Amino acid sequence: MALILLFLLSLVISNIKCQNFGRFFNNFDRISDSKQLLDHYDFIVIGAGSGGSVVANRLSENSNWTVLLLEAGWDENFFTDVPLMATLQTITAYNWGYRGEKIKTACLGAVEGRCNLARGKALGGTSVINFLIYSRGNRHDFDEWESLGNPGWGYKDILPFFIKSENCRECKEIDRRYHGFDGPLSIEHPGYESPMAKSFIKAGIDMGYKNVDLNAYNETGFSKVQSTMRHGTRCSASKAFLKPVKNRPNLFISTQSQVTKILIDPKTKTAHGVEFRKKNIKYIVRARKEIILSAGTFNSPQLLMLSGIGPKEHLEELNIPVVQDLKVGFNLQDHTALSTLAFLVNESITISDISVQNPWDVFNYIWSGKGPLHYLVVPKL
Ligand SMILES: Cc1cc2nc3c(=O)[nH]c(=O)nc-3n(C[C@H](O)[C@H](O)[C@H](O)COP(=O)(O)OP(=O)(O)OC[C@H]3O[C@@H](n4cnc5c(N)ncnc54)[C@H](O)[C@@H]3O)c2cc1C
Ligand SMILES: *[C@@H]1O[C@H](CO)[C@@H](O)[C@H](O)[C@H]1NC(C)=O
Ligand SMILES: *[C@@H]1O[C@H](CO)[C@@H](O)[C@H](O)[C@H]1NC(C)=O
Ligand SMILES: *[C@@H]1O[C@H](CO)[C@@H](O)[C@H](O)[C@H]1NC(C)=O
Q1: Could you identify the atom of ligand 4 that is nearest to the CA of residue 345?
Q2: Which first-to-last residue range defines the signal peptide (predicted)?
């Protein structure tokens, strides 16, 4: 019932100018495709996900550079904005819909024994379908990257950028030294909390852990979730980093544009252009300076292989001319999630299906950005 209601509302809302309906509706500021395509750009960014959105934003700060951002998916909609609906996005066209091969060590209970490997396909990428949890990497991982010969990637170098990008003005239980308050990425605690949240943290303290800020010095402990939300709705990478700069004359955004090949000069091994398809038409554009590949965990290696960079035997099997024999795609790591741990609690202290289907909750969500609809649910995969 509530789903149908939301769907109808989404149709209505996406067809009217709703800036005057209050701050909630400001999110519906849509991004339209750049009118014309040029032959050359200084930079071409492939994929407008969590990474690509930021890169396109920062590069186009320099008005002397032209930047083309190519994205296979399209803009977000009303539906993708509702945090509670996150799990449902995986059955829509906002997910590439990949499935793993059958393996002996995981996903034995899944259909055909194959894991679902969700990946977002939209301006904003996987941040349009993910669970909105704002959780930075562990400091030791960044320090390890640095120690492998990557100066500038240690935790001390990265932290100022986390702080710069963040707007945590609405946050309460945080260590303010580790947070930013003027950046484009909005972080909030979910505005609706069932009594379970308090009990959960108390249980952690009873076991000898601390109630910590999971994004400060030490994340070992129990914490309320910090989420990438703005006024109770999803703050995707596109909302944070593309919408504010979509009118820059040197930034060109093209959606429904799937890159099929990076053009590489086999002699100099320099990438100089890309080939992509948009509505069944093939285009070629060239880059004067750089091509940034940010097409996500699965598609970045795929595109490298289609462009001749990958394991030789595999590329030859598919008649792809080898530019560089490399073990591309060999270090994929994933964590599956399962939802089989079930326990019974009193209905009054959780959100049940019934409360979510209450039209009043739907109205309350739209009007005030409050109530159970922007609750974060445990994924059911
Ligand atoms: C179900 C799920 C829940 C998650 N929950 C969380 C969470 O709560 N918190 C958290 O921090 N992380 C979460 N993550 C992980 C997080 O969302 C990703 O790590 C992050 O978004 C990846 O960013 P990215 O830029 O590497 O790739 P993506 O965001 O996936 O962006 C890649 C973009 O490239 C586009 N693209 C791909 N191929 C092409 C092509 N050939 N041509 C043009 N465009 C192309 C894609 O359509 C996509 O838009 C979750 C992930 C999943 C799947
Ligand atoms: C842009 O180019 C002009 C003229 O070459 C130069 O003066 C200016 O500093 C450049 N701007 C940036 C941000 O690099
Ligand atoms: C982080 O906190 C945990 C639990 O309080 C503690 O055991 C651990 O030593 C701390 N780590 C650091 C690096 O301080
Ligand atoms: C559940 O409700 C019953 C009846 O109101 C009460 O006795 C019990 O303590 C509650 N349990 C929890 C875990 O809150």
Answers
A1: 13
A2: 1-18
Tens-digit pLDDT profile for residues 335-356: 777 666 666 666 555 555 445 5
Lowest mean pLDDT among 5-19, 114-128, 351-365: 5-19
Distance 346 CA to ligand 4 centre (A): 6
- For ligand 4, atom 2, name the residue with the nearest CA: 346
Ligand 3 centroid distance, CA of 87 (Å): 33
Which ligand does the CA of 213 lie closest to? 3
Atom 2 (ligand 3): residue with closest C-alpha? Answer: 220
Please write the tens of the pLDDT for every residue from 210-245: 999 999 999 899 998 999 999 888 999 999 999 999
With helix as H, strand as E and coil as C, how does the chain read? CHHHHHHHHHHHHHCCCCHHHCHHHHHHCCCCCCCCCCCEEEEEEECCCHHHHHHHHHHCCCCCCCEEEECCCECCCCHHHCHHHHHHHHHCCCECCEECCCCCCCCCCCHHHCCEECCECECCHHHHCCCCECCCCCHHHHHHHHHCCCCCCCHHHHHHHHHHHEECCCCCCCCHHHCCECCCEECECCCCCCHHHHHHHHHHHHCCCCECCCCCCCCCCECCCCECEECCEECCHHHHHHHHHCCCCCEEEECCEEEEEEEEECCCCEEEEEEEEECCEEEEEEEEEEEEECCHHHHHHHHHHHCCEECHHHHHHCCCCCCEECCCCCCCCCCCCCCCCCCCCCHHHCCCHHHHCCHHHHHHHHHHCCCHHHCCCCCCC
